[in-house]
Design goal:
Elements lengths: L7 H33 L4 H33 L4 H16 L31
Helix pairs in contact: 1-2, 2-3
Length: 128
């Protein structure tokens, strides 16, 4: 028995694709709503914009993770050819080296307040 013989695998790949697109759309919508909320509260424009970009990036990244998973499933269930193997190799390369985004804050350097960065007093969770 091969993966091609399992009937629901192709449907699972299509379902992951739909979930990926939905995650991106919902992520964009939530990021826009939170950005509008920050502007309504008259928060500093630069801070609101930075949070908007971070929230937007989270939604896009989640959607792309799902889409990559769907592509991998679709690729490994298709009959193997040089084209499909090359496509899978490109997906893996992009997934491995395409993360970019510049330097990230180090977990070894705590913020001056002694709380995790982004923590708001009176809040039990991290901000969006």
């Amino acid at each position: 028995m091969t993966l091609l013989d399992i009937p629901w695998i192709g449907g699972a790949a299509r379902l992951l694709e739909m979930a990926g697109v939905l995650a991106i759309l919902v992520g964009v919508l939530i990021a826009a709503i939170l950005f509008a909320r920050d502007l309504w509260r008259r928060e500093a424009g630069r801070d609101a914009y930075d949070r908007f970009r971070a929230n937007l990036g989270r939604g896009i990244l989640l959607g792309l993770e799902l889409l990559v998973g769907a592509d991998i499933i679709a690729t490994i269930t298709a009959p193997l050819s040089f084209e499909s193997v090359g496509l899978l190799a490109v997906i893996v390369l992009i997934r491995t080296f395409g993360r970019g985004g510049g330097p990230r804050p180090s977990a070894a350097t705590p913020p001056a307040s002694g709380r995790p960065s982004g923590w708001r007093s009176g809040s039990r969770r991290f901000p969006e």
